[in-house]
Batch of 4 targets.
Target 1
Amino acid sequence: MTKIIDTHCHPYLNKIKNKDDIINNFFSNWWEYMIVIWTNLETTKESLDIAKINPKIFATMWIHPCDIWELEVENTILELENIYRENSEKIVWLWECWLDYYWLYKNLENSNLSDDEKEKIVERTKEKQKLFFIKQIELAKKLDLPIIIHNRNSKEDILEILEKTEFKNFIFHCYSEDLDYAKKLIELSPDCKISFSWIVTFSNAKEIQQTAKNIPLKNILAETDSPYLTPTPFRWKEENEPIFTRYVIEKIASLRWENYDYVENEIYNNSVKTFKIEK
């Protein structure tokens, strides 16, 4: 029996196929579970509605750090906690916790602000992102949920916060760093999870491939991040979707020179255990 879980997808964001066809395509292959990620408070209802139509679909909560500047941190955390408590049977991890310095700098590139003004905005925004990140960790501890982390040009600050908070129940989503950084994460939290997306199939992703090859299999998850990051061999041809999860698992197995069925089963067990999904 095929045991595949797409641990990170956005089927409501596909532009070519509708979400019902995408979901049906996934489950028509007798695959196991799908975890739908919302992108902000406005898409919360849509993600939860998708999760509620099928006992094998689950959801998470997420607010992008680039969207937090206008939010009041304490009230937002309280709102997210209330959403979780009202839907706890369907929410399996605590949103995507980001420090996103890439877009922070990118959004300032073409502004008419002086360098001094830009630097002040950068410092203020970084501090608010870090505050929100810490508050998310505190809530994750309170609710006994894992957090999923997406790093954009901020890996050292993320590692520092994880060390200071002594928080170990985390998943690194769409892993894009090298083997050395993965080893630091695993040293900090031996049971943490490193989730590989279709980036691991790209020919220029040598450092990511070395990571997938050399870290313990017990630390590995697989995802699509669909509709983004369409995998080889479909790159540039069509949108990504959860049905393609198999390709990232195949790539991980080939990199490790291990039997595909064995790797698929181990990654499935890792996912079930991490998200406390009953088999």
Target 2
Amino acid sequence: MTRLSVNINKIATLRNSRGGNNPDLLKVAMDCERFGAEGITVHPRPDERHIRYQDVYDLSKIVTTEFNIEGNPKEQKFVDLVLATKPHQVTLVPDVLNQLTSDHGWDTIKEQDYLKKIITVFKNAGMRVSIFVDPSVEMIQAAATTGTDRIELYTESYAKLFAQGKKEEAIAPYISAAAAATKLGLGINAGHDLDRFNLQFLMENIPNINEVSIGHALVSDALYLGLENTIQLYKRALEVK
């Protein structure tokens, strides 16, 4: 079964826009779990423009499903935060400072030595590690020698082509990438621009995805459909017929 982890960054963005604590990020996280989400994802950035570092400490005390923290480990503050809060999973993303959103995976060949070292740090602390990668067989083959437990397939290109009606072209590199990951013994996560329209086709073609983390589209849908109903719609889209 593929797990749905709800990224609550956009909830924090809304809260921060007016100050105070409305909406209450912790309550939203607990409600997501109550409504059926199997995990909570956050991606704190150095400028704390959405998730604040204190949010991560607070969430680590109340999340009862799976807690996943995403971020760039080249920021020492991020490494310290993860080691202090010990989430179930840390997802390593090669963001640059002030980047609007994640837009590429790791070059697992050039960054091989660095990734081996930092992954060892997190695994020695008892966490599962996933690394963000593009749907490239070559990059996944190199990811397998870093010591990571999983790869997270960066799905923006899939989502863009799917929206243009090019479903088969969209999914082809992801099928190859997932097959390579499975052959190499890596778990598979997926995320970025996934929504309730493109999710089911992804699952029909790659049913062995362990987890998807979805934030922007899910929160946007919830404005119209309600949070509880939206989470159920996304979980339904994850079911392979």
Target 3
Amino acid sequence: MKITRDDPRSRVATHHRSGDGTARIGYPIGVCNVVVKSREVITPRMIRLTLQGPELAGFHTYQADDHVKIVFPDADGILRPPVPNDAQELDWPRPWGPARKYTIRRFDPELLEIDLDFVLHEGGVASTWAANAEPGDIVVIAGPPGAHAFAHNFDHYIFAIDATALPAVARWLDESTVDVSADVIIEVSHEEETRYPLADRAGVRVQWLVRPTDRSLLVEAVDALDLPAGRVFHFGAGEADDIRPLRRRGTDRLIIGYWKRGSADHDGD
């Protein structure tokens, strides 16, 4: 589908309401200098940072899995952020500096603040930064580049994810109608990650999987579901190899590799 950039909020809303499957809808892409307003421990393995600043005025995010890139300094401490161009896109420096994608858990256009949730793990540039970030720290974010908008008119939804996609599913539940029907299957590595808060919906079944080995249980759990009649949409997000088999489940789907073992900056597949 052709990327369009005029009135993206209306286009995403129209697709949510009456579209079919998934549509790629572009946003005007910006670069914002923001400050860390607060930090909150969500689980022992996840930290939420609230970022705030006047440059978030006019920020675009209309889909639950929209993301921004956090731009970090090079090894020599020099920060080389991208520059917006006349096409409302970004010109990135070459070679690219370190940058990592994170899903927008919440955006408040009145307070001009966003929430980003970080899974804590050893050695990651973003995880290390988030673990040490303090209120008052300044950071540069770029994006979001646009939405992979999926229609909100399906009879039932299946979300099969790992911890990295929890912010996307949590936001989708927050923004869903009270009568939504869905199965949410979440695979995590540690029991304490199941403390992540999700909105209650009467028609939503949530299943937590604590994986005992390196073998993912997501696909088996999806195949074991007893689904209601009607049109079903499949959303899968997490480690690229774990979720790849989900691309053969269902005809209406959005399956995204948020990260990949052994890759420091996986760009999705």
Target 4
Amino acid sequence: MNSVITSHRKDLDGISSAALMVRYFTKHRPAPFFLTLKDYGDGPSMIDDRLLEASGFEMYISDLATDQKFIGEVIERLKRIRSRGNRITWMDHHPTKPEIIKELSEVVDVLDLRPSTTTGSMIVYDRMYSMNGLDDPHAKLISALGRDSDLMENRYPVTNRLVTLIDYYNYLDAESFFHPNLIHLALHLAFPRAEAEPERLLEKYQLEQVEKYVQLKDSERRKVLSGIETVSAGGMQFAVFQYPKLFSGSSICNDVLQNKELSGCIGFTEDGSGSVRRNDERVSCRTIAQLLGGGGHEFAAGFNLGFRIETTGDRERARQTIIQKIHEVYGN
């Protein structure tokens, strides 16, 4: 039976999850596979349109949150896929409402939801490798790198290079339906030239791309940081700002939160998507993101405002919407 792999494209945990599944279906249980990389902003199309009338496959979904505003439409798409005799496994680590768990349980064959203290790549490794008794040192490394990034442990020097490369490829692939650079990276991580050796994981050309991207971001970063607005709420300080798609939400928020006086930050891009991060455990990134049409973890979340930022009026609308939601959660 063919395998369909769908994973998150915006971060290392999602790309690592994809690489682990590619490796499994190539090395350990060989089967033809179809790889798609998605993001929350894709809406119902997170479940690829091309799958709705297809049959004869198993679908594996990883690291795509189940508490998005369009989850009802996603579930309807999954019902269509299941009605054609296909099997569905969904693995995730984002907090999920009980009613969504119930709905998904009635649609998918395997629903493996775990706490936010784990990661998507850890779940994939456990379910596909550990539970099948597979000893694969390289797969274990890929899982560890996904954890290293998502839980911000930073144990491996190569993690930051991979995060930067993924940011760059998301920038290059922004207008692409197929995301060729990101697909290539997932395949490369699944089968690099040197396996289970973190410092030899990236090729020379990839390291050169990392350096090029770092230089490109430096001047743009200064512009973003100079345009931050500080909002006070509940005795805390929040940064609100717009950033270009050159950055991922994670990377630019990390830069903004170098200012330790800030409790949290909410950044948004020209397409209306954005990220929420925190310095203070009193801040629930997930709660703020949910009010803005998204979701995620308590310590990191994403959202989509539902409109593009193309004019000064759009920017002001985005700014006011975000500030209003901050005050709704934490008061004045």
